[in-house]
């Protein structure tokens, strides 16, 4: 069977450099024996290295042409190809193991949505690695005080140690994308109880970055009941959201929770 035709609507850019594919697959070397779900395998370049390394791999692919190609060319995936939309599928049904890894050369146009979904399954996804648009990869790994830091940076870093590993040239894809790519690795940390209301934490983070040019004192005002003010002597409130660590956002979340409680 001939190769798969890249489809612009699906954001397909097929990796042609085997060295890069091998490096991405090696990000899961320490997780031998832990099941792996690969998102968007395309023609199976990354898949082959994962299987060669002995990983227990399932793949999810929305493109029927790619599914047919994999069925014809990668017999080791027999019964392990899921033709579905990762963003809509029930991961708890597909991956019945208590712990599993997620990997992929992620479509640029939905990469942030993919990571939000991984975050929903943080109690079971012990490692998530792969390649995405460089700017997005840098954002996920961005630490406090960097301009790239954003909502997903903070939400992910509460639960994962996020590393930016290396940059990939646009010239090793078919067709070449207009931007460079970056490879990241997210390893689940030891946090079980972050010490705050996680729903409010998410609201505080999203509200803060929704008005990122404002200081936190100004951006967080709308979250308080009428007549309630933020403390005048809290130094964190003079900062902008990209300057804060996860721990500082936890502190602010607890501050907001205390201020939002109804008076008895």
How does this model look, in words?
This protein is of the alpha/beta class and 264 residues long. The protein folds into 2 domains: 8-188, Vaccinia Virus protein VP39 (Rossmann fold, 3-Layer(aba) Sandwich), CATH 3.40.50; 198-260, rRNA adenine dimethylase, C-terminal domain (Helicase, Ruva Protein, domain 3, Orthogonal Bundle), CATH 1.10.8. Helix content is 34%, strand content 18%. It contains 10 helices and 9 strands. It has helices spanning 18-25, 45-52, 64-73, 91-94, 111-120, 134-141, 151-159, 198-210, 216-219, 246-260, and strands spanning 14-15, 36-39, 57-61, 81-83, 100-105, 125-133, 160-168, 173-174, 181-188. The protein has a 7-stranded mixed beta sheet, sandwiched between helices. A two-stranded antiparallel sheet has the order 1-8. Strand 3, helix 3 (64-73) and strand 4 form a beta-alpha-beta unit. Helix 1 (18-25) crosses helix 2 (45-52), helix 5 (111-120) packs parallel to helix 7 and helix 8 packs across helix 10. The longest helix has 15 residues, at 246-260. The chain is elongated. It starts with 13 loop residues before the first strand and ends with a helix. The mean pLDDT is 93.
